[in-house]
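Team,

Forwarding the record for the chain on the shared tracking sheet. I've put the sequence and predicted structure together so nobody has to dig through attachments.
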Amino acid sequence: MSARPVTFSARIGSPHGVHALADRAVLAEESGFDQVWTGNDIFGHSGLVGLAAIAMRTSRIRFGSGVIDPVSLHPAQIAMYASALQELSGDRFLLGLGAGSEVFFSWAGLTPDSPVKRTREAVVAIRELVNGRSPAGVAGAAEGWTEQALLRDPRPTPIYVGAMGPRMLELTGRLADGALPLCLPPGHVFGVIEQITAGAAKAGRSIDEIDVAACVWVSISSDRDEARALMARHIALYSGSLSTAALEANGLDPEEFARTQKLMLDGREDDAVASVTDSMLSLGIVGEAAEVIDQCGALIEAGVRHISFGPPMGPEPDGALRLLGSEVLPVLRSML
């Protein structure tokens, strides 16, 4: 097992604006989390403004973009934002990069290169820029950079990649400081680690150099039935967008998800939620604090060094953060 200490992060978001997002980050800090992550999808809530607010409202917790795409923002701009957020926060910022959504890009008439290519080129270029170097002539960077491509105020920044598929995971192992894979079910993280390890080996690196976050769905409540009902509704909503291969690889029955999806498409949402079985609920971590501790503890015992708690979190998101902070994290830390 790696000697790396275990990290606990929360993937937060707020439909109520920048101030509410910063409030939630403060709550996560007070609740004992090590990191918080928030998104920046094009046409969504402005993660960049939210990240600046988090930097100014918190003092200890590390915070990251989960994730910025290098299509709607040029890598040079991303490097500038990253360096400035490092300065503003005292080097607490973590840059999460991802390929972005082809659907969202189409709304703006954007037609980017392939996801792996554009992500690789961005990671390479941004790494050079935040370390005070030009990407010109650097292997893996896009063509067109010149020697004048230098930031005025560079600040080294850890780079994480939001990776799902094999090629993106291999890229992460070769180039990134961290990984943000969505792990559904939670045990899927072990296959992810294997693929990242293979990529790291190709670059002469060790997996111990890479912070692999097991990004899991968590629904926690003092009322077990309430937690399960919320997770069931969440799974029903996403039942049609889950990879059949990934479900089968983790011992889940795609036919169950297909039946739930059909009910959703027929407008029978309550019936779809009711159709979510116990095996389907294993897609996430769900229950009272003791159940969450058991499931997270098993991941840690098996070698996971970073658990990232994400939506749906709980029937009341702020209450879920408090419950995780007061009843779950202290027990998990005592196991280390």
